[in-house]
Amino acid sequence: MQNQTFPLILSFGVCDPVGAIGVQADCAAFAALGCHGLSAIAGLLVSDSARIENMYELDSDWMAEQARTLLEDMPIAAFKVGAVGSALHLAAIAEIVSDYPDAPLVLDPFLSALPDAGLGDEEMLSALRSILTPQATALILSQSELGRMAELWRDGADGKDGDLEEDVAELTSSGLHYVLVTGSRDEQGACSNRLYDAGGEVARVEWQHLPGPFLGAGNTYSAAFTACLARGMDAPQALVLAQEYTTGALEHAQRFGMGKFIPSKFFRP
């Protein structure tokens, strides 16, 4: 027997009975990439492989108690924050992670499978921007999701390419290290994930769009990116390996029921 050697990652998010998204999916991807996942649950989903029917929030104090109990016992290599139910959850998470400034913090707060895409009101978007992104290593979101956030500081923000670098600069000016914009398409239709810091684009990785439909592709990517940071990679390295892992997981996806394909977390790049 030996003391713990795998990096430990604490994931804040929802509990999905399918295991396609949320903390169960995170933990599976962490394990595939040599990390061990811990969880603090913010909500319970009612779902199948086709759709999410409902989400029931757990009290933010209960979630915080889960996290504090784990943190008093174990050293954490990184944090991941997924979709949560309210601004109270975001505030509780922000208070907790502020005690661990050296651990990478990855934010993936939008969940398109939810009826409200995971951040349903301006209060949550404002809380994300003001109290969590200034502490974060990376914020992962699509260009349209960046456009939604940009409504906080721009008139008529629509997330178009002409606004993207200005919006990234707005976020990084608060202390956020990186913005990772996923699923961008160029004029030829090629897909890419682009990593930005305060100076602009620092890296990108291109990938071939797969038809699907998939449930949990974005969750798989953000979990893989977090695991790479927990293992000591820098963000540009994590960008590439996370995409390699996600592409393999999608290529080996399985259809569990009558709904969408679930990425195979057992793929190893």
TrEMBL record:
Q: What is its EC number?
A: 2.7.1.49
Q: Does the keyword Transferase apply?
A: yes
Database matches in SUPFAM superfamilies: Ribokinase-like
Known Pfam families for this protein? Phos_pyr_kin
GO MF assignments: hydroxymethylpyrimidine kinase activity; phosphomethylpyrimidine kinase activity
The residue ranges of the Pyridoxamine kinase/Phosphomethylpyrimidine kinase domain are 16-260
The enzyme's first-digit EC class, named in words, is transferase
One GO CC term on file: cytosol
Domain of life here?
Bacteria
Which pathway, metabolic or otherwise, does it act in? Cofactor biosynthesis; thiamine diphosphate biosynthesis
Q: Which UniProt keywords apply?
A: Kinase, Transferase
Q: Which BP terms does GO give this entry? A: thiamine biosynthetic process; thiamine diphosphate biosynthetic process
Q: InterPro entries attached here?
A: HMP/HMP-P_kinase_dom, PM/HMP-P_kinase-1, Ribokinase-like
Q: Enumerate the PANTHER family for this protein.
A: HYDROXYMETHYLPYRIMIDINE_PHOSPHOMETHYLPYRIMIDINE KINASE THI20-RELATED, PHOSPHOMETHYLPYRIMIDINE KINASE
- The name of this protein is hydroxymethylpyrimidine kinase
What's the source species for this entry? Massilia oculi
